[in-house]
């Protein structure tokens, strides 16, 4: 049980909150994240959550939480939670559908990929505010010459490759990725023509080889409304 120094008689004490009103990050109307932490609900103990909405092939970028474990619960749709075991150096993949969970220990490198539209995930943390370090931050904030020198790479190529990453991505690919070679523009969103998550071998490996039970969803993924059709990026704080 968390130790609380909250004055429960104070006039500003909070016992409820509407997560739909707490927008954390928005890529577009189908891909966004709402948040609930002690900053939105001041009586919370060591718990917080991210309410995540994704469409097919969108990715919660590779990242880690240095201060919290994460339990990913699938409400609707389907996703693959991938994590790197730092002890075995093995990249593990866990497909989840409605009612299924995947657990990410504190500090482990991981990412989530939606494999169908209308995917709704709930990420639950054992910290009042989950800290976040994204792959986009590691790539853009480490000087290109350090990457090049450390791994014996061409500095010019490294600099050019990483130049488009100018801010924390959170949900990838970015909306403007159609400008880069290899991307094709569709009516709704950019789609990478050779993206591995669209390939049949990927689904074979992760869904059939790992005995993913498609019969759990005989009527297809649930349909959930998206409360935010607009809005902006309120800043990322400690997430």
Description:
This protein is α+β, with helices and mostly antiparallel strands. The protein contains 4 helices and 14 strands. The strands form 3 sheets. Strands 1-2-3-10-5-8 form a 6-stranded antiparallel sheet, with no helix packed on it. Helix 2 crosses helix 3. The longest helix has 9 residues. It is globular, with a radius of gyration of 19 Å. It starts with 22 loop residues before the first strand and ends in a 31-residue tail after the last helix.
What is this structure's SSE topology?
Elements: E1 23-28, E2 31-36, E3 48-54, E4 59-64, E5 70-76, E6 79-85, E7 90-96, E8 101-104, E9 110-114, E10 119-125, E11 133-134, H1 135-141, H2 144-151, H3 155-162, E12 171-172, E13 183-185, E14 190-192, H4 200-208
Antiparallel strand pairs: 1-2, 2-3, 3-10, 4-9, 4-11, 4-12, 5-8, 5-10, 6-7, 6-9, 13-14
Helix pairs in contact: 2-3
